[in-house]
Design brief:
Distance between the termini: 67 Å
CATH class of the largest domain: Alpha Beta
Number of domains: 2
Order of helices and strands: HHEHEHEHEHEHEHHEEEHHHH
Strand content: 15-25%
Structural class: alpha/beta
Number of strands: 9
Strand order of the largest sheet: 4-3-2-5-6-9-7
Radius of gyration: 21 Å
Helix content: 25-40%
């Protein structure tokens, strides 16, 4: 069945007919829950603000239901699917759609240059593509970080993730987490909408969130030494319920009095807890600790 013929079916009809034809069931181990709500598809595509010049990387396209929508708006779609049966079906379904390239691989094994292939040679900037995807829950956070931490970053990401994960990405001081810092260092995340479990086939046990991340040209808060910055942040969150003076002492293997001195130098109360710091305050803490030998 060709992609243009499948457009006439409902997303649920597409999902069921393709699964029957392939004689497969959704793989729980791969986190396969296929989106079947057309209004949600529209919300995702609208949030991505696609233009004919855009190249889109879609991770986990599954049955290609979102791919159908993306190819109408974007110039090119590179669909990366780890399931060999689904990847083969996608390649067949979109064989006569030259704007679609299907890669059978784990996206975490490929850098963006490899994903985009020859297209990068025709693009003069480093912000040449967007990531739009309904991500498998179990690997959503690593995939988001994979693109944000890459040397060739997207200009925009619109991803479907578990509701709680989306809320952690956008949370501010008071509910900040290591994931929140990891995302907000590279871009501005926002919840576009929440999606109930009934919008998927088969239904997951939890609701989802559509998150849009506008990726910064440069990292936020003036952080340049990314590895050093996250060494301090990870230490701070190694014991998130403890006060900073204690969690940093444990995580960095420093004596508590030395940690207190450095935190006071950074203008941070040593009794505060890691989830209460803003991204800018984490940058202040990092700079104080990075200069402790001076």
């Amino acid at each position: 069945m060709r992609a243009r013929d499948r457009i006439q079916e409902s997303p649920l009809g597409q999902a069921k007919s393709l699964l029957r034809r392939l004689n497969v069931r959704a793989a729980k181990g791969l986190g396969q829950h296929f989106l079947i709500d057309r209004s949600v598809l529209g919300t995702i595509v609208s949030a991505a603000e696609l233009e004919p010049a855009d190249t889109v990387v879609e991770v986990g396209p599954g049955l290609g239901i979102l791919t159908d929508e993306l190819v109408r708006e974007a110039g090119n779609v590179v669909a990366v699917e780890v399931d060999p049966k689904l990847a083969s079906a996608l390649a067949s379904n979109f064989a006569k759609v030259p704007q679609v390239t299907v890669l059978n691989a784990s996206v975490l094994d490929l850098n963006p240059e490899e994903i985009l292939g020859g297209q990068t040679s025709t693009i003069s900037c480093s912000r040449c593509y967007k990531v739009v995807a309904n991500l498998p829950y179990y690997v959503a956070s690593p995939i988001v970080r994979h693109f944000l931490e890459a040397s060739l970053k997207p200009s925009l990401m619109v991803v479907m993730v578990q509701k709680e994960v989306g809320q952690r990405m956008v949370a501010g001081p008071g509910d900040m987490s290591l994931l929140g810092v990891s995302v907000q260092l590279y871009g501005k995340p926002a919840i576009v909408d929440y999606v109930p479990a009934r919008s998927f086939h088969p239904q997951p046990k939890v609701d989802s969130a559509i998150v849009r991340i506008d990726v910064y040209p440069e990292t936020a808060a003036g952080v340049e030494n990314i590895a050093g910055f996250f060494e301090v942040v990870k230490a701070g969150f190694s014991a998130p319920r403890k006060q900073l003076r204690n969690s940093l002492s444990l995580g960095l293997q420093l004596e508590v009095p030395a940690v207190i001195e450095l935190l006071e130098k950074a203008g941070i109360d040593p009794q505060r807890r890691p989830q209460n710091l803003s991204l800018e305050e984490w940058a202040q803490v990092y700079r104080a600790f990075a200069g402790r030998g001076e």
